[in-house]
UniProtKB/TrEMBL annotation:
GO terms for molecular function: endonuclease activity; hydrolase activity; nucleic acid binding; zinc ion binding. Pfam families: HNH. GO terms for cellular component: cytosol. SMART domains: HNHc. Residues 21-81 form the HNH nuclease domain. The lineage of its organism: Bacteria, Bacillati, Bacillota, Bacilli, Lactobacillales. Belongs to the HNH nuclease family. This is Putative HNH nuclease YajD. It comes from Carnobacterium viridans. PANTHER family: HNH NUCLEASE YAJD-RELATED.
Amino acid sequence: MLNVLTKEDRDKFYNASTWRRLRLEIIKRDNYECQWCKQKGIVTSKEDTTLIVDHIKELETHPELALEPSNLRTLCFYHHEVRHDRMFKGKKKENKWIEDEWY
């Protein structure tokens, strides 16, 4: 039977000091850079965006890999949202200033 963690289990895990310490180690290991941006030749650092430690194989379905460094990578907020298909899909907001002259 598949061992699946509940949302409450995951919340408890992410708030634990063990995870918080490992998270910082992974970000440091990855040189404070989003690994997907880096693959594209883009430098994204903690000064540019929020960096998130991502489970390659999801915590929910692979709890045995929760603290395995080889299953963790640093992603920027944007790529973490893309990875989890949580990007905004509504109508793009119109830029009301597009016709304004700035000279």
